[in-house]
Amino acid sequence: MATKTLLGRRVTRYVANGQLVPDALVVEVMASRLPKRTGFVLDGFPRTRAQAEGLDEVLARRRLPVDGAVYISSPESVLVRRLSGRLVCAQCGANYHIRTMRPKQPGRCDQCQGRLITRKDDQLKTIRKRLAIHRREMTPLLQYYRRRGLLNSVDGRGRIGTVFLRAMGLFRRHGWVR
């Protein structure tokens, strides 16, 4: 979008009007950014079954199979606590968290001294709405990967370092990393 490519301009039309970008266009954008070789991880994509099916088509044409899908699961209460604690610098965009990644000076960015704010999409009502949408869209996606024997789940409860170690253990067991 920032470089105003043809693909970016197509996406901008949806985003500028507050609409969701259609799955087919999301897949097209992702396909344009995928490496031409094996050995990559996608974070936050696909988000719907239609996107997963589109990704499979793109990868099949490139003869790159999906080795696995990893879902980091956490109870809703944990997700709400994490999301509702996020802060962002209104000036430079740096991220903080009121419990786990506090700024040195309350309400001020460590990098530029800008004011820290809570984004509108990190307010409790919006978070709950986003999580409901996420659950609705994730269920068919998780079923899709489960049926194909590709779904792996990681317990997302606990400290960031603990969850990271669980995920890395899974990656090592599958031979995705050494």
Defining traits:
single chain, 178 residues, mainly alpha, 3-stranded antiparallel β-sheet, two-stranded parallel ribbon, 5 strands, globular
What does this structure look like?
It is built from six helices and five strands. It is mainly alpha-helical. The strands form two sheets. A three-stranded antiparallel sheet has the order 3-2-4. A two-stranded parallel sheet has the order 1-5. The radius of gyration is 19 Å and the shape is globular. The relative contact order is 0.12.
Structure summarized in a few sentences:
The protein is mainly α and 178 residues long. The protein is built from 6 helices and 5 strands; from the N terminus they run H-H-H-E-H-E-E-E-H-E-H.
